Every structure is written in C-alpha cells, then in structure tokens.
Amino acid sequence: MPILYIAVMAVAFLLDRVVKNWAAGPLVDVHGGVLPLIPGVFQFTYAENRGAAFSILQGRRWFFIVMTVVAVAIMVWMLKK
Fold it and tell me: Is 35 helix (H, G, I), strand (E, B) or coil?
C-alpha cells in the first residue's frame, strides 16, 4: 500500500478522534450540547448513537456481541480451510 494512502488514513483517523473529543468535551460542557453556527439554519448538536446505523437495535448490545462472535468464528473457519 503506497505511503500516501497510509498518510491519508492516519490524518482522517486523527481528525475523527479530535472532532469526537471536542464533541464529547467542550461542545457538551461549554455549549450545553448545541452550538449554532448560522442561527436557525445550521448548528452542531451532540447526540449519541447507542445502536447500529440510525440507532437501529438500540439497547440490544447482546445481539452485536453474538453477531461479532459468529462473524469471527466464520472468518477463523475460512482461514483454516
């Protein structure tokens, strides 16, 4: 994999972590979870997703654990084949 791809992935990962830390920290603590950038048009709002995409299966952590174990078991089986 060319070094440029690795560099782009590393920058994207670091930028993601910085934004998430800002959202969970100063956005909540200083701005109360809402920061209007263009009043009435555009704002940052802190929200947590505790499920899959769009909070589908929220509160069903056991389901994700079982699916992960099954997926890993299938991958290990396929690698040994």
Answer: strand
